Amino acid sequence: MDFTWSDEQQALRERVRALLKRELxxxxxxxxRHGPGSREQTAFSLQFCPRLAEAGLLVPHWPAAHGGSDSPxxxxxxIGEELWAAGEPRGPQYMNVNFxxxxxxxxxTAEQQRRLLPxxxxxxxxxxxxxxxxxxxxxxxxxxxRAERVGERYRIxxxxxxxxxxxxxxxxxxxxxxxxxxxxxxCIFLVDMATxxxxxRAIPSLVGEGDIHEVFFDDAEVPADCRLGAExxxxxxxxxxxxxERVGIARYAFSRRVLDGLVRRLQAQGRFxxxxxxxxxxxxxxxxxxxxxxxxxVIDQRARGLPPSADTNLARVAVVAADHAVSDFxxxxxxDSYCGSDxxxxxxxxxxxxxxxxxxxxxxxxxxxxxxQRLQLPxxxxx
Length: 383
Known about the structure:
The protein is built from 13 helices and 8 strands. It is α+β, with helices and mostly antiparallel strands. It has 3 domains: 7-124, Orthogonal Bundle (Butyryl-Coa Dehydrogenase, subunit A, domain 1), CATH 1.10.540; 128-232, Butyryl-CoA Dehydrogenase, subunit A, domain 2 (Beta Barrel), CATH 2.40.110; 250-373, Butyryl-CoA Dehydrogenase, subunit A, domain 3 (Up-down Bundle). The strands form 2 sheets. Strands 1-4-5-8 form a 4-stranded mixed sheet, with helices on one face. A 4-stranded antiparallel sheet has the order 2-3-7-6, with no helix packed on it. Helix 1 (7-23) packs parallel to helix 4, helix 5 packs antiparallel against helix 6 and helix 8 (251-268) runs parallel beside helix 10. The radius of gyration is 21 Å and the shape is globular.
């Protein structure tokens, strides 16, 4: 089995590195300090992503008809590894690139694609994802936000929480209930965030500036043609979108870069000869490599046109474990370097690691799905 990159793939990686060296400013680590949702990094992404697009490095995995170049999924992840290792200069636009745009390509109408995909492909669109609610976190089937059909419009009422990037987003991929309880009553809407009746409130947190919000819908009316798919048929679309969200970003590349930086500092201090330090560093490295190879398994399945499987959930758990292993190593042996303001990339990693086990569905939910879908274990009965 050959695990080496082809000449074409290695050349792509070198192109991305050259672009980053050319385009990232000298104070990039400071800009990226507060994560993709910060106002400063979001503003930078609106300058940087159009340059990526011009170079053919933003959405090459999309069909050529929608601004891509029909490249295989591997190209998307080679680019993603380099960008995440650099601190993710795409800002919140990684969501468009990874799964929102691809969901529209697969399930959207021709008019929705014509209207919404070009700004994404050009690197000029910020989206958020309105899934979780105060009483429906990872259990999306219990969401309560309602969308009532009124003629050729839907009137939406409800609330969303943990909504990343909502404060600066132009559009929202929103889940709302049009029917009864359970999965069958849920619809997906492509909502303009400038719609009257939508109110956004930032939630201060430890995980990054501008990352977490509450979003309130008070008689917000959207056109019926903003609905993605038919009423009652949203759940398969949601599952497909979540599989691409859960394995869509190369966080393990960021963790590996931070780990390498911590090891270099320990070596410079003459502390890396300690057997315990070396063992813990090895464990963190093994976690990063395990995450990388499990993600590669999912990408291989996508490249072969296979449907999503529990391998996606397993890979997501491994990515979370890698984040936490590197975070634990930094806190144990170099807390000042890992959490100090003199090392903004390390500090950003610490904040992102805090949220890693919650974003895209809690790690416990991923393990439940692995147990049910891969191990075929029975669901436990509620007391």
